[in-house]
Amino acid sequence: MFSNKDRFKESFLKRLESMCGKGFEESTKRDQYHTLGNMVREYISSKWIETNELYRSENKKQVYYLSIEFLLGRLLGQNLLNLGIKEIVEEGLSELNITLSEIEDCESDPALGNGGLGRLAACFLDSLATLNLPGHGYGIRYKHGLFDQKIVDGYQVELPEQWLRHGNVWEVRKPDEAVEVSFWGRVETSCDNNVLSFKQVGDQKVLAVPYDMPVVGFHVNTVNTLRLWNAEPSSFGPNHDILSYKRETEAITDFLYPDDTHDEGKILRLKQQYFLVSSSIQSILASYKKENSNVRELHHSVAIHINDTHPALAIPELMRILMDVEGLTWDEAWEITSHTVSYTNHTILSEALEKWPIYLFKPLLPRIYMIIEEINERFCAELWDRYPGEWQRIEHMAIIAHGLVKMAHLSIVGSCSINGVAKIHSDILKNREMKPFYELYPWKFNNKTNGITHRRWLLKANPELTAIIKDVIGDEWIKQPEKLIDLKRHIYHPALKESFAAVKRKRKEILAKKIAEKNGIIVDIDSIFDVQVKRLHAYKRQLLNVLHILYLYNRIKEDANYTITPRTFIFGAKASPTYYYAKKVIKLIHSLADKVNNDPRVSKVIKVVFMENYRVSLAEDIFPAADVSEQISTASKEASGTGNMKFMMNGALTVGTLDGANIEIMEEVGRDNIFTFGLTASEVLKYEENGRYRSMEYYHHDLRIRQVVDQLTNGFFSEDEGEFESIKDSLLVQNDQYFVLRDFASYIEVQEKVGVAYQNTDKWLEQALINISHSGFFSSDRTIQQYADDIWEIGPVALKM
Ligand code: 26Q
Question: What CATH number should be reported for the domain holding residue 722?
Answer without folding.
Answer: 3.40.50.2000
